[in-house]
Amino acid sequence: MGDMRLIVGSQHTAASSQMLGKFVDVRRVDAQLNAIKGGGACQLREKVLAEAAETWIMVADYRKNSETLGTNWKQGIPIEVAPFAYVAVLHRLEQLGSPTTKEKSTAVGAHGQVLTLRMGKAKAGPVVSDNGNFIVDAPFPREMMERPAELLTKIKLLTGVVEVGLFCGMAKAAYFGNADGSVSVRSTDGSVKKL
After folding, report:
1. N or C: which end of the chain has fewer CB within 10 A?
2. pLDDT at residue 17 tops 60
3. Is the Cβ–Cβ distance between 38 and 167 less than 8 Å?
4. Is residue 4 part of a domain?
5. In Å, what is the CA distance from 184 to each residue of 36, 59, 110, 120?
6. In this structure, are residues 151 and 139 in contact, taking their beta carbons and an 8 Å threshold?
7. Mean pLDDT for the chain overall
8. Each residue's pLDDT tens digit, 52-93
9. pTM: predicted TM-score of the whole model, two decimal places
10. Is 94 a catalytic site residue?
């Protein structure tokens, strides 16, 4: 098969090629290099590219650095869902623990955010992903967010879920731009160094 690497701008080869590296912006990163990504409604494509990369590096500013996912990012986990299944998926996510009222959300420490189908801001109707799917934003209690790989598996097993905006155990490092202009690098071994 030879040396097949993704050429920038070529999405059709991503699934069958191996890239040397991929640098991505993320919504939030925790102390174990798990991340929330997908605010731009392309979870499936982002995940395919992340898995195709030999080395996956995250880049973010210091405000996206947190000990636990969901501490600073209040909107919840972005989840790409088949349009005809979104009502059933919303119901199952509620059963899984995603709050549907502000009262429940505040009670479980989800910052008042509720499970919702993401709606367009400059158009009528729901946000549609690059693949024609809907996006659901699902906040979860802190104790569930502290175990993101377990939560990812539970969500991914729901019929109708296409992809989940949790990226667990994939990154080799995270680079954070700091307010003072310096850069901090967090590695998989937990070490942090300032450049």
Report:
1. N
2. no
3. no
4. no
5. 19, 10, 28, 35
6. no
7. 82
8. 888 888 888 888 888 888 777 778 899 999 999 999 999 999
9. 0.83
10. no
Secondary structure letter of residue 128 according to DSSP:
B
Of 12-26, 55-69, 177-191, highest mean pLDDT: 177-191
The domain of 95 spans 11-194
Query: Tokens 């991929």 appear where?
Result: 22
Query: Both tokens of residue 23?
Result: 């640098």
Q: Domain with 28 in it: what CATH number?
A: 3.30.70.260
Please check the confidence at residue 118 and state whether its pLDDT lies above 80: yes
Cβ neighbors of 137 (< 8 A, separation 6 or more) are 75, 76, 77, 78, 79, 113, 115, 116, 118
Residues whose CB is less than 8 angstroms from the CB of residue 133 and which lie 6 or more positions away in sequence, other chains included: 44, 80, 81, 82, 83, 162
In the predicted structure, residue 2 carries a pLDDT above the cut 80: no
Q: How many domains is the chain built from?
A: 1
In a domain, 3, yes or no: no
What per-residue confidence (pLDDT) applies to 29? 87
CB within 8 A of 154, min separation 6: which ones? 96
H or E segment at 44? helix 43-52
Identify the active-site residue in 46, 143, 146, 163.
Answer: 46
- Higher-confidence residue of 186 and 8: namely 186
